[in-house]
Amino acid sequence: MAFLIILIAAMPLGAAILTAVLGPRHLREYSHVPAVTAVAISFVASVALLFLVVRTLESSSSHGQQPVLEHVVQLWTWAEISPSGGSPRVPVAHGTVDFLRFQIPVVLRVDPLTVIMLVTVTAVSLLVIIYSIGYMHEDPGYWRFFAYVSLFVFSMVMLVSVSNFLLLYVFWEAVGLCSYLLIGFWYRKPAAAAAGKKAFLVNRVGDFGFALGIFLIWSVYGTLNFHDTVDPQTGEVYSAGVLGMARLVHPQEGLLHGGLATAICLLLFAGACGKSAQFPLHVWLPDAMEGPTPVSALIHAATMVTAGVYMIARCMPLFEAAPYALTIVGAIAVITATMAAIIALTQTDLKRILAYSTISQLGYMFLGLSVGGLVGVAAAMFHLVTHAFFKALLFLGAGSVMHATGGVIDLNEIGGLRRRLPWTHTTFLLGSLALAGLWPFAGFFSKDEILHLVYEKGRASSLYFVLFAAAAATAALTAIYTFRAYFRTFFGEERLPSEGATHAHESPPVMLVPLVILAIASAFAGIALGPAKVVEHFLAATPSLAAFANLSGEAQVSHGFHFVPWLSTALTVCGIAWAALLVLGPLAVVRPVISVMKAVALYSLSFHKFFVDEIYSWIIVRPLTWIASLAGWIDRYFIDLLVDAIGFLPKLVGSLLRSSHNGWIPWYGLGFVLGILVLLAAMFF
Amino acid sequence: MEKTALLMHYLLVGTCLFGLGTVGFLSRRNLIVMFLSVELMLQGVLVNFAGWDRYHGQSAGQVFILFVVAVAGAEAAIALALIINLVRGRQGLDVLRLQHVREDIISPPLSIEDEIGEVEPPSWPKLPRVGRPPSIPQEVLEYRPDV
User: Fold this and answer.
1) Who's near A328: CB < 8 A, 6+ residues apart?
2) Which residue of A has its CA nearest to B99?
3) Contact at 8 Å (CB) between A435 and A360?
4) In angstroms, rounded to a whole number, what is the distance separating the alpha carbons of residues A211 and A215?
5) Are A284 and A277 contacting, i.e. CB atoms less than 8 angstroms apart?
6) Is the pLDDT confidence value at A501 over 70?
């Protein structure tokens, strides 16, 4: 396992360095070769690791009790500050703590949660990189693209496999950096440069909270490791990790409860909000669509934006110890999901619709997490995996449309493309069905799992019932906006923008093969993994979740009539029918409906994205601009004035003395004699 | 007592010479006369030396006087050369003709133009033109030290 996990991380890093060094001069149009090779090897290694983990679990589960798998690989110690004379270990209530020793070991971990993320990330990355060979063809920054993407894959792999909060933060920032670089990939385009800057700045807000959360964790637990550090000689645990088994076997004593725990969780959630584009920090993701479409698919739909979900899934024991924080996560998640779905209803840019859809689906994942425990994490991770496939598919399909239309993606300018782009059309349809959540596609199983859990929790808590109602309504909205986009792109009369009218053709096979593979995954991943609860059983072996596995055993949903799947299916079908009616129905019927809808204030709110950007502009950007211009004025007219005044002083003295330099020689002589007289006078008196 | 009276005489003569030289240096405009006045100041100092030499009964002062007289002779030779050059270039010995070393914006209280009208510029010898004019590089033509 140690070899595999190091290989998975090292290959993309090597490819990134190789492409960056050799790309511009030597590789040129072959710049994709290192990236494709490295990520393919990483993917194969991830799958091998998955099978290895499954086999290990099977062999150990025969003993009857819940198997736990955690394999820790220590590479080196990054930072170590120990006091002179050894480090005294301070016994405290939550286990032994070395407060005086600051140690950051570079440690990779293998456990089911990491393995699921690794397989998802490398699989989607591999397909997107292959797709990019066709999509980025003949771009002047071809090598740059593959260097950045390789670096991103490395950072993302490290993010999900490190075993330390500080390293998590480092790679959290590294994927943010790659996101910034790739959003602004076409940096000569002002909109792209501004979007990259916006993504970076908005993420700073969340990351600030994340950093504070890490500081709090350090000051409470005295360590930042996830795992327990075991003395190799004695086998005794001498530093209990924050999420290690030593704490989790006794969650009541081992973990912090109360207000401080809630604060830690909310700060961590702030970081997750920034990275995973949750309200109120969601504003960067729609703008991030300025980047190349494969980047939108890989980073801003499938992998990087799910880092927040992964982080909260990883820290689930902390959140379980702070139930208020979980409730807040649920509330924010539903607000985000519903709001983003409403916004997506009226947008006309295909990629923007998909971006808001991503925000909405991420909201679903957080909603799943907010249920808590193993079931919540399993539902969220399941949705994360299926969403990675079908949303990557939809984005790549949108990219294929852009490829045909010469980069135009505005729904007002394109339409009726299903004959020209048959493969794109079919795969996009499969992706749309998966996103809308129709049986038997992937979204149905994963989204229903979440809805079901929230419904079950809503029986006991009225707040969760409200959340369930909003989430179910969002499911209908999801179907409407997805199929509105689908029908407007592929149905109706054929419309092509002037840029692409002459060469609107199907994409090359190198772009279609990933689409087909992703479409198959979107169609069958759900039915393969969903009903048997594969993800849940697998994740139960994660150390931080194993503690809940036994607890949630008896809380399993009662078998019998399931009300939620029927409700969501009915809502989805209604949504699709409504979208079909609006886009394809007879104009005589549609016109009055549309005019009524436009009269409703919600339409305007949706069209203007709930004015969130405008609100930020008014309460943050403009006051900052005013302060900046005031500071600029003070700098120019006050501080500069002082400096100029000091500079003026020698000039003034000089101009006073200048009149004595008049070229008249007796005058100089007189000055000379007078000077001597003054000196003499000074000597004698 | 007598020694002191003798010293006082010496000092008196020396002071008179020095004062006359100073007044002459400040009041005269002719370069040669100004130079003579400076020499007069120098001689005043030398008389001073001689007086103190007598007073202390030593001969070091006289040795110094010999040195200074020698240096003054050398000075006079250099001054003469300078003055000859100035007369050639400026057509006169008046210091008002030498007021060019000053701030441009400051005008001296007196100038030679006030006294004798416009001074004709010195006439330089004219040489016949020979060969092609030298080609001046572009960067030299465009060199602007003040920009």
Assistant:
1) A266, A269
2) A663
3) no
4) 6
5) yes
6) no
Contact B103 A658 (CB under 8 A): yes
Quick: pLDDT tens for B40-68: 999 999 999 999 998 998 888 899 999 99
Q: What is the pTM of this model?
A: 0.78
- Contact criterion met (CB < 8 Å) for B103 and A673: no
For tokens 């030290």, name the residue.
B145
Q: B102-112: string of b/e by CB count within 10 Å (b at 16+)? A: beeeeebebeb
Residues 6+ apart with CB under 8 A from A516: A423, A427
Please tell me the predicted confidence (pLDDT) of residue A157: 94
Q: Per-residue pLDDT tens for A328-354? A: 999 999 999 999 999 998 888 889 999
**Which 3-state string (H, E, C) describes A106-128?**
EEEEECHHHHHHHHHHHHHHHHH
Give the lowest-confidence range in A53-62, A608-617, B9-18. A53-62
Which residue among A663, A669, A670 sits closest to B100, beta carbon to beta carbon? A663
Chain A positions touching B100 (Cβ under 8 A) are 663
Contact list, A663 vs chain B (CB under 8 Å)? 98-102, 106, 108
Q: Tell me, what's the ipTM?
A: 0.76
CB pairs under 8 A between A and B: 45
Minimal Cβ distance to B26: which of A659, A662, A669:
A669
Measured between alpha carbons, how far is A504 from A495 in angstroms, rounded to an integer? Answer: 11
Verify whether the Cβ–Cβ distance A663 to B110 is below 8 Å.
no
